[in-house]
Amino acid sequence: MAAGGAVLALAAVLALAAWLWRRRQVAAGGAGRVCVAVLGDLGRSPRMQYHALSLARHGRDVALLGYLQSRPHGDVLRSGRIRLVPVTDLWGLRVGPKLFQYVVKVVVQAMQLLYVMLKIDQPSYILLQNPPGLPAIAVAWLACRFWRSKLIIDWHNYGYSVMSLSHGRNHPLVQIAKWYEKLFGRLSDYNLCVTNAMKEDLWVNCNIKAVTLYDKPAAYFKETPLELQHHLYMKLAEDYEPFKPHTESVSGSGEKSAFTEVDGSNGQVKKRRARPALLISSTSWTEDEDFSVLLKALEGYEQYINEGVKLPPLVCVITGKGPLKDYYNGLINKLHFKHIQICTPWLEAEDYPLLLGSADLGVCLHKSSSGLDLPMKVVDMFGCCLPVCAIHFECLHELVKHNENGLIFRDSDELAAQLKMLFLEFPTLEGKLHSFRRNLHSCKQLRWDESWDQTVLPLLGQNE
Question: I want to staple 296 with a disulfide (CB 3.0 to 4.6 A). Which of 8, 100, 114, 412 is the partner?
Fold first, then answer.
């Protein structure tokens, strides 16, 4: 029986090898196709969606590979040149020590990812997001060797630095991940990264030459017209209490939200005089963002109002999904504000830029685990001409210019003081918020399509 089983297993392996060899022999050289891959949720990977859209715009056929947990943007779904290639998210083995569970998960992920990458049509390039890079970098390199393709790694951060947030920098797993990332990172053909600081670090510490492709907002990140704002508020009011009107209007019986109303006399949408200020933040609810800083700052803001400072009521919207969302919702539920309302929705991909373009202020609590990446949420906010308060870390100055397009804070007390200063006598006083928004209007920053064409398109042309 054992011998028969061994013969069957050997036959299966030989058949698989023959099939793979046949696929490699008949492949048509990639024909300009690109596999854009991320071992994560495609719906929450905007930069990789942007890559796919840019490639499609230049006539490339794209296999967009990753988890399909959240709906990607409609532009991706409507593109005739982008094919979604789902990868099943593995929740891991629940038996044995955690280290054993992790090793088993990585091995199974590697086999699964390799199978999916060898099943697609042969690509000219595999463009891979890192992190997560374990085991994705090694698998993508192996697939490139099979297909005779080029591997491009898009470095968003270091995976080992993210891992160190929960395990500590000296944990054996973190040290192994660091060694792995440096070793296999050097095997790539081309590299992109998100900051000049990361570009320098990759060269100095890893001997990897990279090109900086800053995150830039897509064209649909822009200020939202008042009519669209009203439509969005009314839609959100169906599910979220803070968007519902809490006082009656004196201007007729038109449709109302907490922020806008339709004038009963002429049908025009206008902002409500006594509206609250709209504060927005977005997050993946992970260890690199400490939302207790914002919650403590909001307590300080409430105290300012109780002391008689002329500040508006506040609606604080925190969007996103992630592992720590339930934990922070528990903290939020313990707060009993009279002048502040907090909600934590997950927005549809098309609604997120509309809400950014409607808000009065953005807050960013991203603290880079490596000190070398920049928060894409701030890029999107700036695309909507939305001023930002962002927590300080090493290379934030490459994006946020203190007192020009926003403010940088270091703790909850400083953030509370900034909120007080920015919202003083809102919405009548034209102070810092107005100045920051005017500066964002005048800077005329590059959009993603222009930046990508200047940086990545010439890179792809080197091998065509």
Answer: 412
Residue 444 exposed, middle or buried by CB count within 10 Å (0-12, 13-18, 19+): exposed
26-35: per-residue pLDDT in tens? 454 556 899 9
Query: Cβ(122)–Cβ(147) under 8 Å?
Result: yes
DSSP string, 406-418: EEEESSHHHHHHH
Rounded Cα gap, residues 122 and 138, in angstroms: 18
Q: Which are the contacts of 204, defined by CB distance < 8 A and separation ≥ 6?
A: none
Q: For residue 211, what are the β-bridge partners?
A: 192
Cα–Cα–Cα angle for 311, 396, 55, rounded to 5 degrees: 110
Say yes or no to pLDDT of 373 above 80. yes
Bridge partners, residue 315, by sequence: 278, 341
Measure the CA–CA gap between 196 and 374, rounded to whole angstroms: 10
Across 43-57, 183-197, 252-266, least confident range = 252-266
What is the rounded distance in angstroms from the CA atom of residue 140 to the CA atom of residue 136?
A: 6
In this structure, what are the phi and psi dihedrals at residue 342, rounded to the nearest 5 degrees? Answer: -125, 135
Two structure tokens written together for 422: 């920015």
pLDDT at 10: 43
The SS3 call for residue 152 is strand
| Cβ atoms within 10 Å, residue 28 | 8
Confidence of residue 15 (pLDDT cuts 50, 70, 90): very low
Confidence (pLDDT) at 252? 53
Q: What's the N-to-C CA distance of the chain in angstroms? A: 53
What's the rounded Cα separation, in Å, for the pair 19 and 430? 69
Which residues face 280 on adjacent strands?
317, 362
* Per-residue tokens: 381: 């906010």
- Give the model confidence (pLDDT) of 146-165 as tens digits: 999 999 999 999 989 888 88
Condensed to tens digits (0 to 9), the pLDDT of residues 283-307 reads 888 887 899 999 999 999 999 999 9
Q: Calculate mean pLDDT across residues 79-92.
A: 88
Distance CA 290, CA 329 (A): 13
The helix/strand/coil state of 254 is coil
Tell me the average pLDDT across 66-80.
Answer: 93
pLDDT band at 24 (very low <50, low <70, confident <90, very high): low
CB neighbour list of residue 404: distance below 8 Å, 6 or more residues apart: 436, 439
Task: Tell me phi and psi for residue 272, to 5 degrees.
Answer: -75, 140
Query: Is the sign of the CA dihedral 349, 325, 244, 316 positive or negative?
Result: negative
Upper half-sphere CA count for residue 220 (Cβ side, 13 Å)? 12
* Phi, psi (deg, nearest 5) at residue 307: -85, 0
pLDDT at 164: 86
